[in-house]
UniProtKB/TrEMBL annotation:
Top-tier EC class: isomerase
Organism whose genome encodes this protein: Clostridium neuense
Gene designation: priA
SMART domains associated with the record: DEXDc, HELICc
List of residues binding Zn(2+) 1: 437, 440, 477, 480
Listed name of the protein: Replication restart protein PriA
Membership in a protein family: Belongs to the helicase family. PriA subfamily.
E.C. number(s) listed in UniProt: 5.6.2.4
Length: 733
């Protein structure tokens, strides 16, 4: 008998991050379930709050006074026993609270009362419907029967020419009846059929290896265009045949249109789509479809990994190397790591796919944690594009100050003449990267953040890409009074303007965060380019992966060095991945593709090996450097970021925390302590930022001990100081 339950209360307070015991009254014992939401009295005033049932407790110390559960909020379980296993693993790994984990697993608005959407409809008697279809009505009051025709008032007006006053009169006399009907908010768009393709020999070998192996974790290392998506769909088909469900993750919203198009075209309404751009209501409806077993497949971004399938057979994480699979807010989870945890808990297959696997994942393959499955050729027999590297230093020597090298200019001209499509890639939005005074050298920075402002020509403003604040373009330098204010660097907006100026007859589209801010805007741009609505697509990393445009024969990488110069140990890896992925957009149809990479550092091994499509050589070079510098995967990087609007208080506490860490961990030979020091970006949105890094054999138990200790140190002022803690963060900035 379930006499007592352990409950997690719905509160963000650090001090309340524990299990509270409540007694189950006799009246609720038959209805209480693990994972339900219940109302419980909490605190001195016994305020009714939501709580999540995490466990059942048969007996407790009778001398302790225990409060009773007030009521049941949901008659079904919003989290399962398997979810609770995952929560416990996440709590240890990501140093987060119970409630942080729970809220990842349920729709955003479920605790706020978000439920079914309903619409008022009119029910009309069946006999009347038939009579009205045959001839104009005379006396509707003569008709009797069941209310089985369902219409809105506008439909009655349009179809039967009823006036609004007539409708209201009939409702009054109960000839018509108003009822509330549940309306789905899910996207029921129908896609063209995406026919199943015959797998080539290599694709079939990969599928058979996954289905027949006792192993659970796999990496498909396939070159761009090798047909990984068709492999995923074949695996999903096999799961459906076995009565099992599948989750397909794509890195971000920008990749979902093409993947949704293919999966819905193949599997129809058996596919749920789940991503961050959905409204609370849409997320609730999609989540409930999964919960109720109405779909067998989910395609979505990072958060779709938590959807409540009951018989999960397969998790696919496409483009597994992408940084967007790592959350930058608490809990700072990695979708790949969650996939590994769920694979153990659910007993399902985990398949990662990438043309440029992360160093960490490929290292796991060499250690036999993952089974490596390689595909070195494109699926349809198409050849890899010809790639050439242009040294922009030589262009300057030849007095070419354009953003286009002579080679890229000529290639664009030739491709337009042949009526083929072009992608131009630059991983920086805006018109220019910064604005400065040519006389005194002052760089115009955000007043809230320690970063240069970016000039956006279409908005005629300087914009901060961190806090979003805007400033008017200065006419004179505030430091020296000079009028010599100049824009430096190149962004996608400026590339667009230059293209339109030089190639005036070309139809141009731009895809970056500025042009895809509205709902469905990405899909509109994608479909326009796919259907031949433009000759040139200019974009940031949104266009770097996943696209399969058959008419794109030229890819130009305007500045390959941008990610190479970031102060981060992953800079070379990210550059190799971006250049390789963008290059892979060329020549995916029957026509030969070519890629032109513009760079000021052609000697970089990241540029060199990406231009040669040589992942193995890049990996060998990079892994050797990582081992020599004791960077992951040979160590862990534990970072403590502290921020506050009060700079002096921040420095004081950072020094206290730094001394605590040195006193407790400096004795370890296998752990280095770096800092305290200001973060590379020292201020964001008015908050000053400092950091401390521990590098080496830092365990999760150590990390949790550090977190608890820091909150104890900050007890008096933790509302003034923000703390962010992570192991192997996405960025050290």
């Amino acid at each position: 008998m379930n006499n007592y339950i352990g409950v997690i209360v719905d509160s963000e307070a650090v001090s309340l991050d524990r299990v509270f015991t409540y007694k189950v009254p006799e009246s609720l014992k038959s209805d209480i379930k693990l994972g339900q939401i219940v109302k419980v009295p909490f605190g001195m005033g016994n305020k009714k709050v939501n709580g999540f049932i995490l466990e059942f407790i048969d007996e407790i110390n009778e001398s302790i006074k225990i409060k009773e559960v007030s009521s049941i909020v949901t008659d079904y379980s919003v989290i399962t026993a398997k979810d609770i296993d995952l929560i416990l693993k996440m709590k240890k790994r990501y140093f987060c609270s119970y409630i942080d984990c729970i809220k990842l697993m349920i729709p955003t608005g479920i605790t706020k009362g978000v439920g079914h959407k309903t619409s008022s409809v009119v029910c009309i008697r069946g006999e009347l419907v038939e009579k009205l279809k045959k001839k104009p009505y005379t006396d509707i009051y003569e008709v009797v029967g069941e209310y089985n025709g369902v219409y809105t008032k506008s439909e009655l007006n349009r179809e039967f020419k009823f006036s609004l006053s007539s409708i209201n009169t009939m409702i009054k006399h109960e000839v018509l009846k108003i009822v509330e009907k549940v309306v789905s908010r899910c996207d029921n768009k129908v896609f063209d059929s995406y026919e199943e393709k015959v797998l080539n020999r290599k694709q079939a070998d990969v599928v058979n290896s996954i289905l027949s192996s006792n192993a659970r974790k796999f990496l498909i290392h396939g070159v761009t265009g090798s047909g990984k998506t068709e492999i995923y769909m074949y695996l999903v088909k096999k799961m459906i045949e076995q009565g099992k469900e599948s989750i397909i993750l794509v890195p971000e919203i920008s990749l979902t249109p093409q993947m949704v198009e293919r999966f819905k075209g193949r599997f129809g309404n058996d596919v749920s789509v789940f991503h961050s751009k959905l409204s609370d209501g849409e997320r609730y409806d999609e989540w409930l479809r999964v919960k109720n077993g109405e779909v067998r497949v989910a395609v979505g971004a990072r958060s779709a990994i938590f959807l409540p399938f009951s018989n999960l057979g397969l998790i696919v994480i496409d483009e597994e190397h992408e940084g967007s699979y790592k959350s930058e807010s608490d809990p700072k989870y990695s979708a790949v790591e969650i996939g590994e945890m769920k694979s153990e808990i659910e007993g399902c297959k985990l398949v990662l796919g990438s043309a440029t696997p992360s160093i960490d994942t490929y290292y796991k393959c060499t250690n036999k944690e993952y089974k490596l499955l390689s595909i070195s050729e494109r699926a349809d027999g198409a050849s890899m594009p010809d790639i050439s590297v242009v040294d922009m230093r030589e262009e300057l020597k030849e007095n070419n100050k354009s953003i286009f090298s002579r080679k890229l200019y000529k290639a664009i001209e030739e491709t337009l003449e042949k009526k083929e499509q072009i992608i131009l890639f630059l991983n920086r939005r805006g018109f220019s990267t910064f604005v400065s005074c040519r006389k005194c050298g002052l760089v115009f920075k955000c007043k809230n953040c320690d970063v240069p402002l970016t000039y956006h020509n279409d908005k005629k403003y300087l914009i901060c890409h961190y806090c979003g604040s805007t400033e008017e373009i200065p006419k004179i330098c505030p430091k020296c009074g000079s009028k010599y204010v100049k824009y430096f660097g190149v962004g996608t907006e400026r590339v667009e303007r230059e293209v339109k100026k030089i190639f005036s007859s070309a139809r141009v589209l731009r895809m970056d965060k500025d042009t895809t801010g509205k709902k469905n805007s990405y899909e509109l741009i994608y479909n326009s380019f796919k259907n031949g609505g433009a000759d040139i697509l200019i974009g940031t990393q949104m266009i770097a992966k996943g696209f399969d445009f058959k008419e794109v024969t030229l890819v130009g990488i305007v500045a390959a060095d941008l990610t190479l110069n970031i102060p981060d140990y992953r800079a070379a890896e990210r550059t190799f991945q971006l250049v390789s992925q963008v290059s892979g957009r060329a020549g995916r149809g029957n026509k030969k593709g070519r890629v032109i990479i513009q760079t000021y550092t052609p000697e970089s091994y990241a540029i060199k090996y990406s231009s040669q499509n040589d992942y193995e050589s890049f990996y060998k070079t990079e892994i050797m450097l990582r081992e020599g510098m004791n960077y992951p995967p040979f160590s862990k990087i534990f970072i403590v970021n502290m921020s506050s609007k009060n700079e002096s208080l921040l420095i004081k506490y950072t020094q206290i925390v730094g001394n605590f860490l040195k006193n407790n961990f400096a004795v370890y030979d296998n752990i280095d302590i770096l800092g305290p020091c200001p973060s590379p970006i020292g201020k964001i949105n008015e908050f000053y930022r400092w950091q401390i890094i521990l590098k080496g054999e830092v365990t999760y138990d150590m990390a949790n001990f550090i977190k608890k200790s820091i909150y104890e140190i900050l007890k008096k002022d933790y509302n003034v100081i923000r703390i962010s803690i992570d192991i192997n963060p996405l960025s050290l900035l």
